[in-house]
Design brief:
- By secondary structure, this protein is an all-alpha fold.
- It contains three helices and no strands.
- 0% of the residues are buried.
Length: 79
């Protein structure tokens, strides 16, 4: 099998050279179009809620308003 490939390549040098140049050109074009993200975003999804309520302490606002709201919004698609 390898002998057949080598003998074909030797007999058809121009076709093999053109195919190699076409593959190299295609690879160069693909390399330019390749999106490279050197530093991917690996942080978790976060939701920040700013809430105010008259007559409640910051602890009560966090416990009864902000935290349940953050949990409910955490699963929104596309967030």
């Amino acid at each position: 099998m390898l002998n057949a490939i080598v003998s074909f390549s030797v007999r058809h040098r121009l076709a093999v050279l053109c195919a190699a140049l076409a593959a190299a050109g295609w690879g160069a074009i693909a390399l330019k179009a390749l999106p490279v993200d050197a530093f991917p975003d690996v942080t978790n999804v976060q939701v920040e809620i700013v809430a105010t309520a008259q007559g409640k302490s910051p602890f009560e606002i966090e416990k009864f308003i902000a935290y349940p709201l953050e949990n409910a919004l955490r699963g929104i698609p596309g967030l």
